[in-house]
Amino acid sequence: MTGNLLTFIVLLPLIAALIIGFVPRSNQGQARAVALIATALSLLLSIFVYAGFDQDLAGMQYTTHYEWINIAHVYQDKALTIGFDLGIDGLSLPFLLLTGIITFLAVLASKNIQHRVKEYYLWVMLLVAGLYGCFVALDLFLFFLFLELTLIPMYFLIGIWGGDRKGAVATKFLVYRGIASAFVLVAFVALAFKAADATGVISMNMVNIADAFAKASPDLITAAFKQGIFLVLLLAILIEEAFFPFHTWLPDTHEQAPAAVSMLVGGVLMKIGAYLLFRIGVGILPDAVQYFATLIALIGVINIVYAALIAMVQKDWRRLLAFSAISHMGVVLLGVAAMNEAGLQGGIFMTISSGLLSGLLFFLIGAIQERTGTTMIGALGGLSKPMPILSGFLLAAALGSLGLPGMSGFISEVLAFIGAFDAFPVLAAVGTLGIILAAVYLLWAMQRTTYGPTTAALEGVSDAKAIEYLPMIVLTALILLIGIYPSILGDLVNPTILSYVTGIGG
Amino acid sequence: MLSVEQFLTLAAILFCIGLYGALTKRNIIIVLVSIELMLNAANINLLTFARFGLVPAINGQVFTLFAMTIAAAELAVGLAILIALYRNRNTSDVRDQDLMKW
Amino acid sequence: MVEYAWLVPLFPLVAYLLLFVLGRRAQEGVVTAIAVLASLAAFVVSLMILSEVQANGPGAPYMFHWLTVGSYTLSMGYEVTALNAMMLAVVTFVSTLVFLFSKSYMKGDERFVVFYQYLSLFVFSMLGLVISPNLLQVYIFWELVGLCSFLLVGFWYYKPEAAAAAKKAFIVTRIGDVGLFIGIMLLFVATGTFDYAGVFQAVESKNFAIDWISPEAFITLVAILIFIGAIGKSAQFPLHTWLPDAMEGPTPVSALIHAATMVAAGVYLVARAFPIFAASETALTVIAVIGGITAIFAALIGLTQNDIKRVVAYSTVSQLGYMVMALGVSAYVASVFHLMTHAFFKALLFLAAGSVIHALHHNQDIRSMGGLWKKMPVTGWTFLIGALALSGIPPFAGFWSKDEILLGAYASGNTLLFVIGLIAAFCTAFYIFRVFFMTFTGEFRGDKDTWDHAHESGPVMTIPLVLLAIMALVSGLFNSPVTDYALADFLQAGGLHYGAHPEHVSWMPYVATLVALAGIGLAYLMYKTKSINPERLANGALRPLYNLSYNKFYVDEIYHYAIVLPVVWIGRILNFIDKWIVDGIVRLVGQGTYVGALGLKYAQNGQVQTYGLITVLGAVVLLGAAMYAIGGVR
């Protein structure tokens, strides 16, 4: 049973998608119910995985292996093996839990989708399966498959249920991430074939590849080769993670996508890039990451400051939050570039924290949009009076996002900056500008949204409904929990990080 | 005893005639006939190599039988489409069948 | 009792949680009771701790594990030193009285419970800040008190000025906080620890794991960075602009947060981390200069303000400048001493001002006050005591502590600082008595209706005033010849031997008192007897100077045009670049593809025979190329 837990987690949404396919179109409640049950079960199983996870081990746990594709004599007499390999370690477990929580809450928050409901949940379920799959796949081929599985559903989710520019934005999303996928594929194939030089078998299993790369002599796998692959991978990550100058799909996507889809994009989908950076970049090509450390840190700092400055002048909350997320993910790059324990741990913390905060913020903005019909900062004002609960949570989320101690953003920033100050004092100091600017743009937006006299049109708007309390409370509680007791996340991640850092040799 | 070259030459000539017909003739029926010629040229090649190839085997002849069957089926479909087209548009000129542009 | 120091912040935290659970339906009496009792309990425990520290000296820190980062461990904990023990007592004392005072002041407010929630959270954070044994924990609570300040300044959220002031308070202090943040990050990188003890040890041995800077320069850098945090929080020049604006919050908040406790946190931090500063002469000089500038600068602005709370706020800025200056000249004890006395008399002044404002239905303009002594004698008396203490008239508290600071400045040999201190003292006495005379003496200048309704506040408000007045009267004696400088000995028990009590200069008390009396006398002549007409002065030869002071030296305007607008414009320009150049290129690629396709689509002419011909030609070309590549047919 435990061996197949991860398989069930991934399969449940797929089965749900199948069932939704057979649900009559007229009965919209059934499709929603099936989706809710499937995501809830997957979440429960993920928590079960967490409960049974041995936090002291650095390696993969819950591994599942099925033979899948074996072809002899593919290239230079070497066999190609692709397996259905799933597994989880301290690095991917937080991502798995994040996926479980955000997907469940996003389905819960999809209540206001009234149009082509059955199709909507069908696509969401396929997307959810892809998201889960990305974080548990141990085989690069499988990972790539799941990565592509997130692409198409998202295209339709934006393109059918989006705002007034949905068509163009959905295409933009698809093209951008499609290009990223191409780079990912190139990097994966190069990795697998080079590893085969050392092992004699073209295996797509990332554990095997990491092993081969760690053990192979520098003559066989040259530093230049690693740097080359890493650059390709970095390009893919920069697009996936929406870093300047490849970021323009993200604000558009967030602006046009429905709130629940924005939760999925900002909460989980965007984090796949960061996961790739940790898993493949730091895990398999640490020397190359170190070689390009200054470049990565520089990109990180540029993103922190650039996105923060742009966020400051945005007129739409959703665009503001998109740029805010870019700025936060810049901190991840800065932490990773440091390539030390604190920096890496800070990077993972920041990724998870940003996922939770994005989920919460987009949920709240969606709830406000549902009531007021707008997300334009200028059209809102004095929301504290008609909706004190939503405003209170929005303030809490904004404070968490600007790195208030006691919430997850703070400890992430502290760790990432400890690492960064060790490696790049000057760049890190410039990066702290982001801390000030985050306060400026978030509080400025808060001041114009919830403070001040209530706009006449907004008098008497209703406050949070019972069903909305669950996402708000769960996400806020998790943000607080990580902030107050970071060990709950740190102890999970630490063994993996230590094994990476020892791999670097310092 | 005929040599390989002779068979192959025959096939090549047949193929070229077929190709010429398929690319230049205006009447769809002639185009279809030309396509049959090309198929038959290929069949001759298959038979030739089944008999004179490096590893003589029955495969080529089997393939040829398949090809002939499929060619017959294909021709049936083609003629059916042709008749439908003619009824609709009252022409059997290839150049008029250009709906699939732009 | 020292090992139970965690109880002190726990009480207000429990009160906060209780009030949070109770929600808005709770009765005002119950709410006040919970908050006041919790604060009182914290005060009692603080007193017990204080007496124990007095008897046995400070205890060792108590630490527990918080987070493992690779091979490092971050811990949290608590620690009681002499300085902490004193701060605990002061904070809990003032907050208990403010909690009591607020019951009447905030009566009937729609969000009465929320107010007490925020206040309790603030007291918890402030106490947590005080007992923190490491810099990371200090930073955590440092931000939390900033948050509470933000929430409470913006408590009346529907007032646009309050919302703007709250945002400004948070952002301006955050600029300072980032300095502190960088400072403690660098310290951790260099020493591998956040703990005060470990850091002090490393500073003493000058043993840092950092190679890009010399140890001496590193200490100076870190000290100045930490001090930048103090500049923000303690509203020192040039980050002082938020504090006067923060007066938009309810007056009890101003009394507790923006006078007695939070704004003193900057001074407290520098005092707590003093060994780092003591190791760098440059850093001390910077501190002294900033403190001196702030003291005189804010005092000059205070001379002409007409809002009763703003005058007291500028006075706070100026007094904090004094404390900082004292630290800069190594007069450690004098600074902490002034911190304590100031907490009492400034909280008193604010609460008395609050009492006046409450009686006049939230009118804060002293130009429309006057003659209130007759209506509110208790408030008048207590305000007078506070004003005398602030001016430094013996035997009130301010006299003793200000005297120590002036002595320290004089002893440091920096005559300029000493003179600045004297001038600021003169201004202080003048502006506070200007407020006193304009508010409590003469004829009432507001409308008759207000005058008829004005009355002395109830006991809930006057009891805190009286208690604080008593402290303003006697707290100076703790460090005076009367008690044989008990406070100095107490503070130095932990081994901190900085500026014990500087050598006494016999003429100093007389000069200081004379200067203060001169200020009071001038205010008397101008606003009581009216023998000097202040308006003629303001509109006459002193017009430019008056304008400069009245408009706060245009600092806000300078910041608006020199910093805020440029940053916003950079944002706008970047946004434009992002939209039209970065995304423009993206769209150009898209459009280019589209336009190219528009042209190429005409190749798709629908003629199946053309397609066939091209296919054949393509095949021939490919075949030819393949032949060429393998060297032709044999």
Automatic annotation (TrEMBL), chain A:
Keywords attached to this entry: Membrane, Transmembrane, Transmembrane helix
NADH:quinone oxidoreductase/Mrp antiporter transmembrane domain: residues covered: 137-430
Stored InterPro entries: NADH_Q_OxRdtase_chainM/4, NADH_UbQ_OxRdtase, ND/Mrp_TM
Keyword Transmembrane helix attached: yes
Membrane-topology descriptor: Multi-pass membrane protein
Compartment annotation: Cell membrane; Membrane
Entries under Pfam families matching the protein: Proton_antipo_M (PF00361)
Signal sequence coordinates: none
Transmembrane regions: 6-23, 35-53, 91-108, 120-138, 144-162, 174-196, 228-250, 257-278, 290-313, 320-340, 346-368, 389-411, 423-445, 466-488
Family the entry assigns: Belongs to the complex I subunit 4 family.
NCBIfam families on file: NDH_I_M (TIGR01972)
Name the record gives this protein: NADH-quinone oxidoreductase subunit M
TrEMBL record, chain B:
Pfam families per the UniProt record, alphabetical: Oxidored_q2
Subcellular location as annotated: Cell membrane; Membrane
Residues annotated as transmembrane: 6-23, 30-50, 62-86
Known catalytic reactions: a quinone + NADH + 5 H(+)(in) = a quinol + NAD(+) + 4 H(+)(out)
EC number of this enzyme: 7.1.1.-
Principal location: membrane
Membrane topology: Multi-pass membrane protein
Superkingdom of source: Bacteria
InterPro entries: NADH_UbQ_OxRdtase_chain4L/K, NUOK/Mnh_C1-like
Key word rRNA-binding present: no
GO molecular function: NADH dehydrogenase (quinone) (non-electrogenic) activity
DNA repair in keyword set: no
Broad class of enzyme this protein falls into: translocase
Keyword terms, alphabetized: Cell membrane, Membrane, NAD, Oxidoreductase, Quinone, Translocase, Transmembrane, Transmembrane helix, Transport
Family: Belongs to the complex I subunit 4L family.
The protein's role, per its UniProt record: NDH-1 shuttles electrons from NADH, via FMN and iron-sulfur (Fe-S) centers, to quinones in the respiratory chain. The immediate electron acceptor for the enzyme in this species is believed to be a menaquinone. Couples the redox reaction to proton translocation (for every two electrons transferred, four hydrogen ions are translocated across the cytoplasmic membrane), and thus conserves the redox energy in a proton gradient.
Subunit field text: NDH-1 is composed of 14 different subunits. Subunits NuoA, H, J, K, L, M, N constitute the membrane sector of the complex.
NCBIfam families attached to this UniProt entry: PRK05715.1-2, PRK05715.1-3, PRK05715.1-4, PRK05715.1-5
Protein name, entry field: NADH-quinone oxidoreductase subunit K
Organism the protein comes from: Tumebacillus lacus
From TrEMBL, chain C:
Domain NADH:quinone oxidoreductase/Mrp antiporter transmembrane: residue ranges: 132-427
Metal-binding recorded as keyword: no
Record-given protein name: NADH-quinone oxidoreductase subunit L
Name of the gene this protein is made from: nuoL
Chain ranges of the NADH-Ubiquinone oxidoreductase (complex I) chain 5 N-terminal domain: 66-116
Principal location class: membrane
Transmembrane spans: 6-23, 30-50, 82-101, 113-132, 138-158, 178-200, 212-232, 253-271, 283-304, 311-333, 339-360, 381-400, 415-437, 458-478, 507-527, 610-630
Family: Belongs to the CPA3 antiporters (TC 2.A.63) subunit A family.
Keywords, ordered alphabetically: Membrane, Transmembrane, Transmembrane helix
Pfam families, A to Z: Proton_antipo_M (PF00361), Proton_antipo_N (PF00662)
Compartments reported by the entry: Cell membrane; Membrane
Membrane topology value: Multi-pass membrane protein
